[in-house]
Design a protein that fits this description.
Number of strands: 12
Largest sheet: 7 strands, mixed
CATH topology of the largest domain: Aspartate Aminotransferase, domain 2
Shape: globular
Structural class: alpha/beta
CATH class of the largest domain: Alpha Beta
Number of helices: 13
Distance between the termini: 61 Å
Radius of gyration: 21 Å
CATH superfamily of the largest domain: Type I PLP-dependent aspartate aminotransferase-like (Major domain)
Strand content: 15-25%
Bound molecules: pyridoxal-5'-phosphate
Helix content: 25-40%
Number of domains: 2
């Protein structure tokens, strides 16, 4: 039988997907760096190899893959709790902070509830909200590429269940100050969960963003979201966490897919927290490169907002964007293009950063 004979008649009814799923964008495989001369600057990963202690912990745990992991992730939650000065009961872990965010949205939202977030912000937000049958409410960024908290507060309705704040914001790099978030928290109803997504917090200059733990202690409707994927260099292992009021954290743990954080990921995350000093040295080097690049780009004539993440954001109209994307493609540099809005470039090792600077010089205004 040839594959043609397997084709079903065109009028045969197939099982249908939920409307929310049919409406989602198709998955576009991320462009991966293949050759040695490809610079992978599209995903804000760490360009460093995993911390030696994390790699050793994974190697040591590899022999136990026949066993399920600790579904409650007790040891990891206790280690995170000690790191932050909270209790393990206030910590929920998941497969990346995207996984934890899915637990948050599905744990909090009924069909038709509103989830408010800035736009542009993290691509995963609208997808997770729509998958849960909730309603994404996008509030445009302000003219300085930051969150417009007044407009976000004005977008609150009776149906608002969750508000997502991303600081520093992906993809623009702009943080939200402590004072502005505090004023915002005073103005929104205490029954709305305000998630502060701090995926890039390790890269932010001290004082540029919020003291989220202090806000959490003062406002129990705050939920802090963090990840081991970026500064800690464990993007491939999938582990992130939330800090929330004990009853909410307990709900997030119940919402999790069983065994979703592997034993390897749990061990690597613990080892990473144990050797945090090495992570901080790497972060310092990236911040130094970020400053060097920003200064050179400014000298070239580019107008950028100061980024507090491990990436730079170039606002670009349709035309400039396609010029830049073509040029980066030809140069073997993978960057992230956001249709009609701009281009995001991960700050990495000095040699690939130099290639970026050289390319952008040719396109400066
Ligand atoms: C990269 C990123 C995350 C982290 O994703 P993981 O699932 O932890 O790998 C979360 N939020 C934002 C804004 C990000 O850019």
């Amino acid at each position: 039988m040839t594959s043609d004979q397997l084709l079903i008649a065109p009028d045969t009814a197939l099982p249908t997907l939920r409307g929310a799923v049919a409406g989602l964008p198709s998955y576009v495989p991320g462009r991966r760096g293949a050759g040695a001369d490809i610079a992978a600057l599209a995903s804000n990963e760490s360009h460093y190899e995993p911390l030696p202690a994390a790699a050793a912990a994974v190697a040591a745990a590899a022999g136990t893959m026949n066993r399920y992991p600790d579904s409650a992730a007790v040891e990891l939650r206790e280690r995170i709790a000690r790191h932050l000065g909270v209790t393990a009961g206030e910590v929920a872990v998941g497969p990346g902070s995207v996984g934890v965010l899915q637990q948050i949205i599905t744990g909090m939202c009924d069909a038709g509830d509103d989830v408010i977030f800035a736009w542009r912000s993290f691509e995963a937000y609208p997808i997770l909200v729509e998958l849960a049958g909730a309603r994404p409410v996008r509030v445009p960024l302000d003219s300085a590429e930051g969150h417009d908290l007044d407009a976000m507060a004005a977008a609150v309705t009776d149906r608002t269940k969750v508000i997502l704040l991303c600081t520093p914001n992906n993809p623009t790099g702009v943080p939200i100050s402590h004072e502005r978030i505090e004023a915002f928290l005073q103005s929104v109803r205490p029954d709305i969960l305000v998630v502060i997504d701090e995926a890039y917090v390790e890269y932010a200059e001290a004082g540029s963003g919020p003291d989220s733990l202090a806000l959490y202690r003062q406002y129990p409707n705050v939920c802090i979201l963090r990840t081991f994927s970026k500064a800690y260099g464990l993007a491939g292992l999938r582990v992130g966490y939330a800090v929330a009021a004990p009853a909410i954290a307990e709900g997030l743990r119940r919402t999790a897919l069983p065994f979703s954080v592997s034993a390897l990921a749990q061990k690597a995350a613990i080892a990473s927290l144990d050797t945090e000093g090495e992570m901080e040295e790497r972060v310092a080097a990236v911040k130094q490169e970020r400053a060097r690049m920003a200064a050179q780009l400014e000298a070239q004539g580019w107008k950028l907002q100061a980024s507090q993440g491990n990436f730079l954001w170039i606002r670009a109209d349709e035309r400039l964007q396609s010029t830049l994307v073509d040029a980066f493609d030809r140069a073997g540099i993978l960057v992230r293009a956001y249709q009609g809005d701009g281009v995001r470039i991960t700050v990495a090792a000095p040699d690939s950063n130099d290639r970026v600077l050289q390319l952008l010089e040719a396109h400066a205004a």
